[in-house]
Amino acid sequence: MDAEETRTQLARLALSMHEESTVADTIERVLDYARQAVDCSHAGVAFVHAGRQIETVAATDPVVRTLEATQNRLKEGPDLSLTRADRSLIVADTASDARWPRWGAAAAELGLRSMVGARLYTSDRTIGTLNLYDSRPHHFTESDLEVAHVLARHAAISLWNAQNSQNLLRAVDSRKLIGQAQGILMERFDLDEDAAFAVLRRYSQNHNLKLHTVAETVVKTRRLPEEGLAAEALRNDGAGTGRTPT
Fold first, then answer.
1. What is the pTM assigned to this prediction?
2. pLDDT of residue 244
3. CA pair distance 131, 116, nearest whole angstrom
4. Other residues' Cβ atoms within 10 Å of the Cβ of residue 52
5. Sheet holding 42-49, edge to edge
6. 60 with 44: CB under 8 angstroms?
């Protein structure tokens, strides 16, 4: 792909990635385009979790997952550097790169001799890394690094938006579920809305269950789990407002 075509494709991809889509869809688009824009044999996207653990969430070949998993075990590697300091980097030859000798040896043994990586980040947080690999040493150029960096910036924003959208949908679904469970308790035990919610919350706390888990059980079974124990929740939170469970 020449420079002009690369810029055009980047612009098109940026627009498509910022359309409403799931996290999985966004990652698939990134990997598909990365392999077109940058001539490489393999590509992967890794997310970073608390404690700086790296998790490969998508890869074009299992060998990428194998290699990236070694970074958690060895406590060294380009992904870890990208999530902590570097925004993008090139590994010209894994067999001779002195920055991460043990990771480099593992990469060379797996047949991956060069790499370009870019951090996936927004103004608020680091999401992970975009990693492109090739079996040829000294394969990637500064132009490839620039393309990977630009692609990663667009991808990070799209992934952040997709994650927030999915979290919002889960929150809305959870609120609907809790509302349905409240309605069942209100009808069955003659409770008002506040008392029904208090019963769900008390049961959740007493049994170390998430509130939506308790609500889901109520909706499915139309009763609280272990209703003999539920009587205590009703006495504490719904006393004088309802009937004893039967």
1. 0.63
2. 45
3. 6
4. 14
5. 53-59, 42-49, 126-134, 114-121, 88-91
6. yes
